[in-house]
Amino acid sequence: MSVDQVSTPSRVAEPDEGITLEELALASRNHAMPLEAMRYDVTPPGLHYVLTHYDIPMLDPATWRLTVRGLVDRPISVDLETLKAMPRHTSRVTLECAGNGRAHLTPRPVSQPWLTGAVGTADWTGVRLVDLLEDAGIARGAVDVVFSGADHGLDRGTEDDYRRALGVADATSEEILVAYEMNGQPLPPQHGFPVRLVVPGWYGMAHVKWLCDIEVVDHAFEGFQNAVAYRIKRNAEDADDPGTPVTRIEPRALLVPPGFPDFMSRTRVVRPGTHLLEGRAWSGWGVVRRVEVSTDDGHTWVDADLEPAPDRHAWQRFTCPWEATDGQHYLRVRAHDASGRVQGDEPAWTTGGFANNADEAVRVVVMEEPPR
Ligand SMILES: Nc1nc2c(c(=O)[nH]1)N[C@H]1C(S)=C(S)[C@@H](COP(=O)(O)O)O[C@H]1N2
Ligand SMILES: [Mo]
């Protein structure tokens, strides 16, 4: 057998092609956050979205070690107890998958078919990555820092552990955590037990779960997840285009779906009268400065009341009163961040379906209570 007989190349769906059974298999392993969970400042762990490329490895905390090696003065191997004895830091961080919004693209890149729920916010506790790197002592000539997870698989013909690298300048940011707690509890297996990387502001792929090795290298890392998978490429025909790397989270605002849903269509039903719309907004490029709300499908916009960020990389709550009148309405929200980025209404298509932060209309039907 050769890998070509096992591994599927990436592809784009036919214009009218529905979600395939392979996509359903991914979608049922990797669940979204139900949008009503945006009512919580901190997402309860079972409601936080999950994305795992291969299998969830089962690691024994008694034998697990984290190694720091490569271009360092003093290679390190630490166990969990030693790591927990180091200075402890907690940050509230909103995590979003780079593929969030992919299923809204036409044509649809065939992969995990996220709508907009691939997001969640947690309090992550652990040691600062930079403390570990300083203990090891980064040697002269270091270029990239490579993080390896304990999970292993095959993707488009390449077999590897899940590995991602950051440049040395990014990797030595004080914000990055080697985390062993989520919301004050040991990490759940699906979120990286016993230890994961948390890279605040970056899309999910950088936050390596089941972290077991950190290697400092003297060259730009060419591993699959950096060089092939997470690239922004606009032209599916151009196989030679290396694209640009996926990095920080683009701004997005989402509404807590108002009222109650219709079971199959998820159309929202709201009673006539005054409602307080609420939602969350975030960006990896700077705090959110302004959220706009439209209750007429983008014709007119008003500013929402926006709460300050509780932590530099945590989502911000917003509210906006709405006088709901009988009939059908399309609600839209859009975020503006401190870097000047703003959400658009047209998806920016990429071959992998990354960073589609176009605002999505929420269909609401306003009607009186039916007679019983
Ligand atoms: N080891 C490992 N780390 C990983 C992944 C993975 O498949 N293996 N998936 C990444 C991706 S693409 C995302 S979006 C986040 C999801 O983190 P969560 O499941 O804790 O929400 O984990 C990242 N870290
Ligand atoms: Mo992701």
Automatic annotation (TrEMBL):
Cofactor: Mo-molybdopterin
Keywords (A to Z) from UniProt: Metal-binding, Molybdenum, Oxidoreductase
InterPro entries associated with the record: Ig_E-set (IPR014756), MoCF_OxRdtse_dimer (IPR005066), Mopterin_OxRdtase_euk (IPR008335), OxRdtase_Mopterin-bd_dom (IPR000572), OxRdtase_Mopterin-bd_sf (IPR036374)
CDD domains per UniProt: SO_family_Moco_dimer
Oxidoreductase molybdopterin-binding domain span: 53-224
Residues of the Moybdenum cofactor oxidoreductase dimerisation domain: 274-358
PANTHER family, per database record: SULFITE OXIDASE, MITOCHONDRIAL, SULFITE REDUCTASE
Protein name in UniProt: Sulfite oxidase
Origin organism lineage: Bacteria, Bacillati, Actinomycetota, Actinomycetes, Propionibacteriales
